[in-house]
Each structure stands twice: as C-alpha cells, then as structure tokens.
Design brief:
Radius of gyration: 23 Å
Number of domains: 1
Shape: globular
Number of strands: 9
Strand content: 15-25%
Strand order of the largest sheet: 2-9-3-4-1-5-6-7-8
Order of helices and strands: HEHEEEHEEEEHHE
Distance between the termini: 59 Å
Number of helices: 5
Largest sheet: 9 strands, antiparallel
Helix content: 25-40%
C-alpha cells in the first residue's frame, strides 16, 4: 500500500491547524458568553445572601424556590403527615407502584426515594430525586393538589441558577408554567441560544405576578432569573425560606421493591 506523499501530509497538517484554530475560537466565544452567565449567578447568590461584602448592606431577595439543582414539590399545607400519605396515594395512581412511609433515622437517607419535611411557614417540602422526570413530577403535583384541594408548586431547577422549570397546580389544574433553558447550536458567537416557555400569565397576574422581560437571562441585565416566579410563589402563601439545617420529624418514602 502506498503511503501518503509530502503534499498529502501538508494538506492534513494544514487542515488540522485550521480545525484547531476554529475549535479554540469557538471555545473562546462560548467562554465569553458563559462568563456573563457566571457573573449572573454571582449576582443571584449575592442577591439571596445579601452581598459579597457583608458591610455593604445590599438588598436581600426572600428566596423560597430551590437555590440549586434538584426536584422539589412545595405544598401549601400545615401537616406533613397528611401530605406524605396523600403523596403516596398519588404516586400509586400515577406509577402503579407503592411507597412505604417511615420516620427518618438520619438527616439524609440515601435509600429514600422522597423526603417530606415538616411544615415550615405553612408549607411542606417534598424533596425528590436529583433527576426527577418532569412528566412524573407534574402528574404527582396535579394529583396531590386535587386530593388535598390546595396549591402545589413543581420546582425543577438547574444548578446554574438560571435554568429550570416551575409549574403551579391548584385543585388538580395547572395554572402557571415557566421553563427556561440553554442550547448550544454552534461554536459561534451566537451559538449559545436561550429559550423560554411561559403559560398562564392571566391567572398569575390575578395573584400579583409581575412578569420579567423574556430576555432576563442575558448577561447584559441585572435581573435575577426566576425572581418574578419566586415572588408569585410567596404571594400564594408558600414560603419555605430559612429552613434550619437540622430538621426533626422528616418522613422518608421508599419505593417498594417487587418480589422476584
């Protein structure tokens, strides 16, 4: 078999060099755009905690939505035992599988599928799996809100504090929905696209919702992502902020393993 000649080698080297330059340029462009997102996350953390400088006295955001990635249902209720039982019933309806409810023996139970926290400021938190499928979480929220005749918030947040999904259910019906996410379409300056879906603004505005502009996620704004939705959840009477690090009375729900 004839090996590549000098001309072929030169073409390969030239092509490789061009590809390398393009990749480096694309990576730089994405880094430049993402650095704006990072600064936005820093602004979010600063807004929630007060400020990078404790002596600056910056304004604080009363934050009730999850601050990091994971799935949570926020239930307007004062009795977490009733909520846990209703959630187990809803889980059986939605998945045709059962859950066993027990008292937590430790602050964190790695074997638990879900954890139900005691009511805090008239709201109960149900902590779900890290990668909680949205269809299941929403179906459970709808069933739970109907069974308890109350408001249930689905909050599936991304760890960048700028992406995620929030749905609000009342008496079995979805009243509000907002989803924000990013997608890399190409290694170009405009290759990082941001998307948003929002539904139910009329109902939300009746409850005091003031929507942020559709482009609040851009690095050129000081708006805090999901702050408008966070305010809406607070106005609905669901406030799970300032939960202590050590909580007693947590109920864990474990999925029963079918017999072989």
């Amino acid at each position: 078999m004839r090996g590549p000649n000098a001309a072929d080698k030169a073409k390969r080297i030239g092509s490789l060099a061009v590809t390398t330059v393009l990749v480096i340029f694309g990576a730089y462009v994405l880094y430049h755009k993402w650095s704006k997102r990072v600064s936005g996350v820093a602004s979010l953390v600063s807004a929630i905690t007060g400020s990078d400088d404790p002596g600056s006295g910056g304004p604080q955001i009363h934050w009730t939505l999850p601050e990091d990635d994971g799935g949570v249902l926020l239930v307007k209720s004062t009795n977490h035992t009733i909520v846990a039982k209703a959630f187990a019933d809803a889980f059986s309806q939605v998945t045709r599988q059962t859950l066993t409810i027990t008292a937590a023996t430790d602050q964190y139970d790695e074997d638990a599928s879900f954890a139900v926290y005691p009511a805090h400021k008239k709201a109960v938190s149900i902590i779900g799996p890290m990668e909680w499928p949205e269809p299941q979480a929403s179906a459970l929220a709808a069933a739970l809100s109907k069974q308890l005749n109350t408001v249930v918030v689905v909050a599936l947040m991304g760890d960048d504090a700028e992406s995620g999904l929030v749905s609000i259910y009342e008496n079995g019906e979805r009243r509000f929905f907002l989803k924000r996410w990013y997608q890399i379409t190409s290694l170009s300056e405009d290759g990082l696209k941001e998307f948003m879906e929002r539904d139910g603004e009329a109902w939300a505005k009746e409850h005091g919702y003031v929507p942020s502009p559709a482009k609040v996620l851009t690095g050129d704004t000081d708006a805090v992502p999901f702050e408008d939705v966070n305010d809406l959840v607070l106005k609905l009477g669901i406030d799970t902020s300032d939960i202590p690090d050590e909580v007693k009375g947590i109920l864990v729900l474990k999925q029963n393993t079918p017999a072989p």
